[in-house]
């Protein structure tokens, strides 16, 4: 099991807050940081779109990623929510241990 940082964009602060709270309450994430006012440019259904979004940085573990993705898909307002995860290759050992502890399903 490793610590991962998952990224997810949201259309607004309200939906970002709802998702962040649910993921932490359900122990799918130890911490979710909300980065307001990111500008995204993307291709969607044949058109190039641009818009302001809130980016979530979700700190979790690799073994919780599938459950996190399923919950995100159920709660997210987008038809196709973004979820991209990268492995943390290092970090402060006590923090990494805290992330693992907070995402344990058996507490």
Automatic annotation (TrEMBL):
SUPFAM superfamilies: GlnB-like
Pfam families listed in its UniProt record: CutA1
GO biological process: response to metal ion
Gene Ontology MF: a single term: copper ion binding
Superkingdom of origin: Bacteria
Annotated signal peptide: none
Similarity-based family: Belongs to the CutA family.
Protein name: Dihydroorotate dehydrogenase
Organism field: Lysobacter concretionis Ko07 = DSM 16239
Lineage summary: Bacteria, Pseudomonadati, Pseudomonadota, Gammaproteobacteria, Lysobacterales
